[in-house]
């Protein structure tokens, strides 16, 4: 068969998910609470249709059936996360044997089906006890995280080679400390900077710990949501706005994770506005010595910015937005359900930037996808006809393929997500999966995109 877009041999085809979004069984198996369980108890109204994280997609009970479906959808790899509060309820101390059993079972089942597990340690889900101690603002919580990471390497490192310290570590910073969409709903940039900094220190310390384990073919990485900043125009004021947005939202994690140091321009801004976090002696050397082996790139949307129209109110809380306004480009293509622009070439731009400025680090697309509301309206003969999703993936893959042709070190493509899952405060509003979930009875069915993806994976291209 002749293919127009062929991918390198051994390309990773699969999808990604996270513990809180699919496992359910929140009150089973001795699991502890995380910030989502707690926040839902406090403010259920903050969640779409008041649906909380207790049951979600019931993967805890149905993982066997789900892994069979992954096979049908052509997966050779799958990223999951471990729930810290399931493995170590309360965040510190005794390991929960029921959790060990569960994750062992899932990992073994994946391997038995020739699906390589990629395991992430933290996906927005801080154990509530540790959040009450200050969460990532506390250096003691960093230590607790490193102990948890070591436990996980010890328990599962005999079978899991690819590890990730964090998924999108900037999101809890934005959501929890700047823009009020995650617990603890603080708006305070200095505290946000501390949270970001400690997260990065935690990641470097986990990388350092990982190197002590003798994990066969072991690689440790981080998953970042990279959002290229496009200026409205080439006017120097617009260019400056996009440079600053890039510093805050991409380079704040990308540079320390891959290059082992923070961009000086970012430090200068935070210094000028008195927002620098507390640091400790030895941190600089720690970051420099413990960069990641592999980078997961989550890409959904670009960020378009322009120079600010008005001076920010000096009495308002300091925010990154003091330096730019968002720009709505006329003619942009939108995913209206999520309110995110679709710009496929952004993926290529990211990969070329990694090639040219980040040592062409080994990478893969660790999330990319399209959430759509009321997908039942596309049901025909028992199958959701999600042609829009096929088009979305195909067009992104074309740009990824071009980047690879031009030397990008991209090794795979994981979709967000395998099956419809619980999307934080949006709950089940937007559906992202290859597999549709009927929330009434938890039954699963493949969408049209699942069959299409299977063929792409089988042919290693299209
Ligand atoms: C990423 C996250 O931000 O995007 C996922 O890693 C998330 O956890 C996904 O679900 C889609 O975003 P949302 O907010 O629509 O669920």
Could you explain how this protein is built, in words?
The protein is an alpha/beta fold. It has one domain (12-459): TIM Barrel (Alpha-Beta Barrel). Helix content is 40%, strand content 16%. It has an 8-stranded parallel β-barrel with strand order 1-2-3-4-5-7-12-16, surrounded by 4 helices. A hairpin with a 2-residue loop joins strand 14 and strand 15. Helix 8 runs antiparallel to helix 9 and helix 9 (189-210) runs parallel beside helix 10. The longest helix is centred in the middle third of the chain and has 24 residues, at 236-259. The chain is globular, with a radius of gyration of 21 Å. The mean pLDDT is 98. The chain binds 6-O-phosphono-beta-D-glucopyranose. 6-O-phosphono-beta-D-glucopyranose binds next to loops.
Taking pLDDT < 50 over at least 5 consecutive residues as the criterion, the unreliable ranges are none
Question: CATH superfamily membership, which one?
Answer: Glycosidases
Number of domain modules: 1
Any ligands, ions or cofactors bound here, and which? 6-O-phosphono-beta-D-glucopyranose
Oligomer: single chain
Corresponding CATH architecture: Alpha-Beta Barrel
- Can you tell me the CATH class? Alpha Beta
Radius of gyration of CA atoms, rounded to a whole number: 21 Å
**Helix content estimate:** 25-40%
- Number of DSSP helices? 15
Strand content: 15-25%
Report the biggest beta sheet as strand number plus sense, adding barrel if it closes. Answer: 8 strands, parallel, barrel
Distance between the termini: 9 Å
The backbone outline, from C-alpha atoms, is globular
Structural class: alpha/beta
């Amino acid at each position: 068969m002749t293919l127009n877009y062929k991918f390198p041999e051994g390309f990773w085809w699969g999808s990604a998910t996270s513990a809180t979004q699919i496992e359910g069984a929140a009150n089973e198996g001795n699991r502890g609470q995380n910030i989502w369980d707690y926040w839902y108890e406090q403010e259920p109204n903050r969640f779409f249709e008041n649906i909380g994280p207790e049951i979600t997609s019931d993967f805890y009970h149905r993982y066997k059936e789900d892994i069979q479906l992954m096979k049908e959808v052509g997966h050779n790899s799958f990223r999951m996360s471990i729930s810290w509060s399931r493995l170590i309820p309360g965040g510190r101390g005794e390991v929960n044997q029921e959790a060990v059993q569960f994750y062992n079972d899932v990992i073994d089942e994946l391997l038995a089906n020739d699906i390589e597990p990629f395991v992430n340690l933290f996906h927005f889900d801080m154990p509530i006890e540790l959040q009450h101690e200050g969460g990532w603002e506390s250096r003691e919580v960093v230590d607790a995280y490193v102990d948890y990471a070591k436990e996980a390497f010890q328990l599962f490192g005999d079978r899991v080679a690819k590890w990730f310290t964090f998924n999108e570590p900037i999101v809890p910073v934005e959501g929890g400390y700047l823009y009020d969409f995650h617990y603890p709903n603080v708006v305070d940039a200095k505290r946000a900077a501390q949270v970001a900094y400690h997260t990065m220190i935690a990641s470097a310390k986990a990388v350092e710990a990982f190197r002590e384990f003798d994990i066969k073919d072991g690689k440790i990485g981080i998953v970042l949501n990279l959002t290229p900043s496009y200026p409205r125009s080439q006017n120097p004021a617009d260019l400056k706005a996009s440079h600053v947005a890039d510093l805050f939202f991409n380079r704040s994690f990308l540079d320390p994770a891959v290059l082992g140091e923070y961009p000086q321009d970012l430090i200068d801004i935070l210094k000028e506005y008195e927002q620098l976090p507390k640091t400790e002696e030895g941190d600089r050397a720690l970051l420099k010595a413990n960069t990641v082996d592999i980078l997961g790139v989550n890409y959904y949307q670009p960020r378009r910015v322009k120079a600010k129209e008005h001076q920010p109110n000096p009495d308002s809380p300091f925010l990154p937005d003091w330096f730019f306004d968002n720009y709505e480009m006329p003619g942009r293509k939108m995913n209206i359900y999520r309110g995110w622009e679709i710009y496929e070439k952004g993926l290529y731009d990211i990969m070329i930037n990694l090639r040219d400025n980040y040592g062409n680090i080994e990478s893969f697309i660790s999330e990319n996808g399209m959430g759509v509301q009321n997908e039942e309206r596309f049901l025909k003969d028992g199958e959701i006809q999600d042609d829009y999703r096929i088009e979305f993936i195909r067009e992104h893959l074309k740009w990824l393929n071009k980047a690879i042709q031009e030397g990008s070190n991209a090794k795979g493509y994981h979709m967000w997500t395998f099956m419809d899952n619980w999307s934080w405060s949006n709950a089940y509003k937007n559906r992202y999966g290859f597999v549709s979930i009927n929330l009434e009875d938890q039954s699963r069915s493949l969408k049209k995109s699942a069959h299409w993806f299977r063929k792409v994976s089988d042919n290693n291209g299209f």
